[in-house]
Amino acid sequence: MLTSVCAFGLSVAFAINTMTFVSAAAKRKQETKGAKTPRTSVTSGRTATTTHPTQPKRDVDSLSAKKICWGQGVHFDSLNRPRDAVNAQQQYGELGGFFVDLSETGADAQSEPANKKIYLTFDEGYENGYTAKILDTLKEKKVKAVFFITGDYAKRDGELVRRMIQEGQVVGNHTWRHYSMPEKSLATCREEISLLHEYVKENFGYEMSVLRPPKGEFSEQTLALASEMGYTTCLWSFAYKDWDASSPGDTGQSLKRLNERLHSGGIYLLHAVSPTNAAILGDFIDDARAKGYEFVTPGA
Questions:
Q1: How open is the CA angle 115-119-121, to the nearest 5 degrees?
Q2: Catalytic annotation on 271?
Q3: Inter-residue contact 268 to 119 (CB < 8 Å)
Q4: Residue 239: how many CB atoms within 10 A of its CB?
Q5: Per annotation, catalytic residue among 101, 123, 152, 242
Q6: According to DSSP H, which parts of 6-50 are helical?
Q7: pLDDT tens for residues 247-274?
Q8: Any catalytic annotation for residue 123?
């Protein structure tokens, strides 16, 4: 059974501060439907030399609007992959959902591939002073990861966002106001994605292409809408209780948990507010590499 994952809400003050930008964005001239727009490589953060057309429009309204609260589950297959993540990838992959990478193994594989991949992702609901240390470790280890930011984070912590981009990390869209997308209209969902997309593009010269829905809540409609807007919706196949800054957890036990759940194609969700994650990240990278894992990012 799928389980919900807690996430931090945004403040009332932030919602008020967004009003000016929302009004201004609403006045922008709409791009010609189907026009080609430059995209940014998710592996480098630099503008690509090629262009990609807008994704073909789906009949989004005909899809299910039922809210799904994602959690990777507690049952695993012979390759240590969460069965719920494998099933979800098969069910929702064509709609643009990314729960676990099955490209090297397939859903029914019984042996590990020669090239074992793992994806590191960090949710940035707010800044708690540990992102810089995480970036230091990633730079030292020559590892790329995805940092999912909100509108509030982009405005308040622009220097960290700029550093992520300059160091080749991937900046992902965690929406403008951190709403639960299935609880909002499709028009509001489109606005939540596009407001942050345009803000980051205009202020940092970077174009995002990976989305993580707030609280891990999505529907078939929101997956298809994001895909139509040129986004992959990236969920996860590993997460643990690391978002409570008042109870960061023991470093030894946390590292053990990260290591024992390693699986090829795994997408790790970690929170950058955790001092424990910042402390154990280097050891985890070393341990995973020693077991034959390569760290990659979506689209790499």
A1: 170
A2: yes
A3: yes
A4: 22
A5: 123
A6: 12-17, 19-26
A7: 888 999 999 999 999 999 999 999 999 9
A8: yes
